[in-house]
Amino acid sequence: MLIPAEQMNSTLKAILSSEGFKEPAAERIAHIFTSSSMDGYHSHGINRFAEFVKNCRKGVIDPGADVSLRSSFGHVERWDGQGGAGPLNAWKSMNRAVELAKKHVLGCVALSNTNHWMRGGSYGWQAAASGCIAICFTNTMPNMPPWGGQTPTTGNNPIVIALPRSQGHIVIDMSLSQFSYGKLHQHKLNGTSLPFPGGYDHEGDLTTDPTAIIASKRILQTGYWKGSGLSLMIDLLAATLSGGKTTAEIGTYDAETNLSQVFICIDPSKLYANEAYNQLVNSVLDFYRSALPEKEGQPIYFPGERTAGRRAISAKIGIEVKEPIWEGIRALRK
Amino acid sequence: MLIPAEQMNSTLKAILSSEGFKEPAAERIAHIFTSSSMDGYHSHGINRFAEFVKNCRKGVIDPGADVSLRSSFGHVERWDGQGGAGPLNAWKSMNRAVELAKKHVLGCVALSNTNHWMRGGSYGWQAAASGCIAICFTNTMPNMPPWGGQTPTTGNNPIVIALPRSQGHIVIDMSLSQFSYGKLHQHKLNGTSLPFPGGYDHEGDLTTDPTAIIASKRILQTGYWKGSGLSLMIDLLAATLSGGKTTAEIGTYDAETNLSQVFICIDPSKLYANEAYNQLVNSVLDFYRSALPEKEGQPIYFPGERTAGRRAISAKIGIEVKEPIWEGIRALRK
Questions:
Q1: Band of the pLDDT at B334, cuts 50, 70, 90?
Q2: pLDDT in tens, B107-119
Q3: Of B67, B181, B56, which is closest to residue B114 (Cα–Cα)?
Q4: Is B166 part of any domain?
Q5: Pick from A129, A243, B235, B327: CA 20 to 30 A from residue A3's CA?
């Protein structure tokens, strides 16, 4: 079914209000879930909204919590998320990092004790919309084995990098497993193989069979040993900068909570006249896309390009949502 | 043959002095080449020294150049490498980033118009030895196709992240191609296949045959589309922050020169008592390494662990160097 974005937003907002979120928090969170769904990231948007509400009811997420400044070093600030909503805390942190960048060229907010930020890309688009370059990342619960190991002792710790551009922002949002569990489940449901090996089967062999990987819980790191090492570094950076919890500690809780995140922002308008910046960015994109395509006529996309395309379609025709998902959300209303 | 580190250092230093490098530049560059070789990174150490000297003679590298401050924004500085030696410029930039971090918690140096930094990890180890966390990256000449493309319109743009630790620093140094051309040539020489697909053959199929990949020039990105997008972002960050050249521009020169690099440093001693920081870092490492190993008895390494092991061996027995390489270097003496 197709749900107009406004209808989705107002439905989610009403539910969030009844769960105890005040204004403008309810509107902000509803908007983040709706935008992610418009952009086609349902697994971290509308498909996860019911779980988000359940986590509010279970006390994992505190609808009354607000971020609190722990310490300030001028352009670097440490904030405590106090167990509040992940998307709200992340949005506030990026908003603050943008403020710091506009004042100091480069600003950094490190956030402890927060919850899952849903789609990390949201905060990249947010910074880019404010004219800022951004780098942000989060740790997660242990959900990925390290290189050479069978059991999950690191996270797939997503990294987001965004650059503003007047003809359309450039935003990469990548986790450090080659495929997400969401993608594995999607392939399993569709009865399709992964396009590339995405993990190991029970015999310890690399496989493209999503069912075998889900069963073994041995998802493959992005770039094998590289993604494994990088995931360790992201956890270390997130925890040490924020003073928050590590993937190891997060693994000791009943739910994935008390995450650590970092938001770095740079204001390019302090470094360039606007036109010069845009010309530079466009020259890089033009060259990148000038490669001889693998298949004739096949375009070479830059990160964020197809997302913007899906967003435009959703704005026009509405957001495609699976009926049971939407019914499940309507059933959350009190 | 085995060359004692001191002998290698003094041999390289004498050659550098005769090429016009003054003190302490000659000593610094000799030390970086020697350390990389001690650590086992010969392809970016001793094996590339002759090419480095040839680039001085060709005028690609200016032995008399020094870095010059272009603009300062407190904790953010832009420097111009003025075509000087890449390792020297990178070392000075990281040194300055450490100074900025010690003063401002987080410092950032963006460097334009520099030359190849050889082993990026050198500057991670440098920052960690100064007690600082570091993130640094560089762009390169176009040497990797973008995802969906056949011809190289992006670089394998290496990223380095380092965290200091009293029992041994943690340093990841990774390029954004799954294997370097150096590694491909090594496998070709040894007559071995790559352990995983590392690029495409002329039919456009993924292959583990190093000869086929060298011939097609289609090396595989780290994590397929992820490494491709990330390489674009690293080029954009390096060029926009430094105000320097892009991979596209670098591709128009006869040699790989006028690179753009970024050095970000954070001083954790501003955030933690030393013991608390070390405990936090060790707890992450302990958990990471606690995974059930893939093969019984096989240790799980953290990034930098084996490098430190090789360094200790080289210090004890000398640095293993192929005889023609060493003879080639001795022949450079004037």
A1: confident
A2: 999 999 999 999 9
A3: B67
A4: yes
A5: A129
For residue A257, what are its two tokens?
């909570």
- Please provide the size of chain A in residues: 334
Amino acid A312 reads A
Instruction: Report yes or no on B153 lying in a domain.
Output: yes
Residue A190 phi, psi (nearest 5): -80, -10
B253 touches chain A (CB under 8 A): no
Q: Which residue range is the domain that position A18 belongs to?
A: 1-58+304-334
The answer to whether the CB of A184 falls within 8 A of the CB of B330 is no
Determine contact, residues A181/A214, Cβ cutoff 8 Å: yes
A12 and A156 housed in the same domain: no
Which residues in chain A are closer than 8 Å to B133, comparing Cβ atoms?
237, 240-241
B23 and B138 assigned to the same domain: no
In this prediction, residues A144-172 reach a mean pLDDT of: 97
The answer to whether the Cβ–Cβ distance between A146 and B292 falls below 8 Å is no
The DSSP code for A293 is B
Q: How confident is the model at residue B19 (pLDDT cuts 50, 70, 90)?
A: very high
What pLDDT is attached to residue A181? 87
B108 belongs to a structural domain: yes
User: How close, in Å, is residue A291 to chain B by CA atoms?
Assistant: 5
Residue B111 shares a structural domain with residue B79? yes
Pair (A42, A87) in one structural domain: no
Six-digit token string for A149: 């190991």
Cβ pair B133:A237 closer than 8 A? yes
**pTM for this predicted structure:** 0.98
Domain CATH for B192: 3.30.60.50
Same domain? For A248 and A318 the reply is no
Looking up residue A161, the CATH number of its domain turns out to be 3.30.1370.60
Question: Is A3 within 8 Å of chain B by CB?
Answer: no
Task: Report the C-alpha gap between B138 and B241 in whole angstroms.
Answer: 11
Q: Is residue B44 annotated as a catalytic residue, yes or no?
A: yes
pLDDT tens-digit series, residues A140-149: 999 999 999 9
Co-location of A77 and A157 in the same domain = yes
- The rounded radius of gyration (Å) of the Cα atoms in chain A is 20
CA distance A289 to B247: 13
B159 with B269, same domain: the answer is yes
**Total number of domains in chain B:** 3
- Helix and strand numbers, DSSP H then E, in chain B: 12, 11
DSSP A107: E
**Does residue A310 share a domain with residue A164?**
no
The pLDDT assigned to B301 comes to: 97
Nearest beta carbon to residue A104 from set B74, B229, B233: B74
The mean pLDDT value for B157-177 works out to: 97
